[in-house]
Amino acid sequence: MSAADEGCGEAGVRLCVADGQRTFVEALALRLDAEADLSVVATVAGPDALLPTLRAHPVDVALLAVEGPRSPFLGLAEAISAERPEIRLVALAEAPDVPVLARAVRLGFRGWVPKDADVATLVAAVRGVVDGGTHLPPRLLTDLLPHLLHEQEERRESERLLTVLTTREREVLVALSAGADRQGIADELGISSNTVRTHTQAVLKKLGVHSSLAAVALARRAGLC
């Protein structure tokens, strides 16, 4: 089966299976296709093909491999939700990682299934999300809620700290978050490099951090950039 092959018909719940390993994708697709109410209409063996494949096929549920916080399929979830909000996302997870699960939930994933789970568990998750529910392992759910509450508290504190910045200081911080260097910020804002340095120092002092990286992390937690 190729990176974007047709499955065996349009009956039932239409699935797309995506993973970096073609053998895993093909084996899982065959097992899921054996279910009377499921139909694998597309497979993807690499992140570059995912969005084009979803644009080309009618998909109800996308099963995406999530191998950690830098998983390319996880990074594509926001774009999928923007283009095809009707598609339910289910993670095929490598490890029980609560921070990664929290991010997946924020990005719109409705299911989280260990990659080594039996097919019956995965099928139950697919059917559950199609019916409008969610599927999260109970042992992870216990840790997920406190984690999300802690993230919310951090966000509120970060937002509070940002309120002390001037408009120009916020502009400098946004430019830093975009990866611009001092001269690049100066050119963008029409100010001198020394003025950028002054504003940067003021930002660090007001936010109570010791580096631009820490300031950028705080800004991102607050949703500034």
Order of strands in the sheet with most strands: 2-1-3-4-5
- In terms of DSSP E residues, the strand content is 5-15%
Please, how many helices?
Answer: 11
Quickly give the structural class: alpha/beta
Characterize the largest beta sheet: strand count, sense, and whether it forms a barrel: 5 strands, parallel
What does this structure look like?
By secondary structure, the protein is of the alpha/beta class. It has two domains: about 15-140, Response regulator (Rossmann fold, 3-Layer(aba) Sandwich), CATH 3.40.50.2300; about 165-220, Winged helix-like DNA-binding domain superfamily/Winged helix DNA-binding domain (Arc Repressor Mutant, subunit A), CATH 1.10.10. The chain has eleven helices and five strands; from the N terminus they run βαβαβααβαβαααααα. Helix 8 crosses helix 10 (about 195-205). The chain is elongated. The model is unreliable at about 1-10 (pLDDT under 50).
Topology:
Layout: E1 13-18, H1 22-33, E2 38-44, H2 50-56, E3 61-66, H3 72-75, H4 77-83, E4 88-93, H5 98-106, E5 109-114, H6 119-130, H7 138-162, H8 167-177, H9 182-189, H10 193-207, H11 212-221
Parallel strand pairs: 1-2, 1-3, 3-4, 4-5
Keywords:
225 residues, alpha/beta, Rossmann fold, Arc Repressor Mutant, subunit A, 5-stranded parallel β-sheet, 11 helices, 5 strands, 53% helix, elongated
